[in-house]
Amino acid sequence: MEQFVTRRAFLNRGMAAGAGIGMLGSGVFGGESGAPFQTKLRTAVIIGKSLEEKTLAAIRAAGFDGVEWKAWGAAPEAAEAARKLVEAAGLAIHSMLGGGSQSLGDPAKAEAGAASIGSALKAAQACGATAILVVPTALKGPAAPEPWEFDVELDEATTHIKRVVAGDNAPYQEFIEAHNKAVDSVRGALKRLIPSAEKAGVVICLENLPNNFCVTPELTKSLVGSVQSPWVRAYFDTGNNMKYCRPSEEWIRVLGSLLGRCHVKDFKFAPDKHGGKIVNMREGDVDWPAVRKALDEIGYNGWMTIEGSADLSLEEQGKRMDLILAAK
Fold this sequence. Notes:
The chain has 328 residues and is an alpha/beta fold. It has a single domain (2-325), classed as Divalent-metal-dependent TIM barrel enzymes (TIM Barrel), CATH 3.20.20.150. It has helices spanning 2-11, 19-22, 53-61, 76-88, 110-127, 173-200, 217-227, 248-255, 288-297, 314-325; strands spanning 42-47, 66-69, 92-96, 131-134, 153-155, 160-163, 203-207, 232-237, 259-264, 266-269, 276-279, 303-306. The strands form three sheets. Strands 1-2-3-4-7-8-9-12 form an eight-stranded parallel barrel, surrounded by six helices. It has a two-stranded antiparallel sheet with strand order 5-6. Strands 10-11 form a two-stranded antiparallel ribbon. The longest helix is centred in the middle third of the chain and has 28 residues, at 173-200. The chain is globular, with a radius of gyration of 20 Å.
């Protein structure tokens, strides 16, 4: 896969000069010292189940290295055909995402959810992907604090929540119990899936969503780490976390080596910081230079996939991604 890094470096509109710089990827210089970043980041966009040579050629021409394929239910034969088509365009399918994976937190539905993930692992193996995106569960029923009110205390030994706000937690006791029950169910399902993931050679990456489950980086790290397997990692989305008022660079540093994949998304706060909305990348409040620095600090050599900027042209997405990789 190293050829993707090198080729992208020379496609990036003159940002790299000479083969020595090119081998480090695009926009490799950043920070106050001007020293080169040590990590190599590959870039991708999300693409639908139907793959067209013209679209793939445009993605490559825009300087991207690969795609994340939204084809959760793909049959292995179709996945193998997709791999050949994508590779012929000079790209790679690095991950798969889709539906059928949000039920692991409900013991009554976890078995069916795990079966869906098992099928996705086989499809990912066939298309050449080395990861799948899984949203493990959501907590939408019990009364929860406002996003900006969360002040979580975690029991590291059990990975359970002890409190969700400072002061009186009685109004949120049902939420605390539901969250702890969901954590246990998700962990159990993931442990049962480890042999399948290992056989396929595909990592299960858990994505953070603004759905009241694992709302802090510490909670996510605790859950992923408690599975104790290299086949389970975190899929960090730089925009989804912002609702809970913890900056993206902080999430990255806390997750550290447990970070498996990264979605590039931006979020614009409301004036009072209470809520906001997803916006095009580099038009919101994500501190991109801090994100790039944090990725380098934890040694993340991985994929950065754009999500949430679909109204931008591929060329514009590529230009903005180059600036992010250059810590600008």
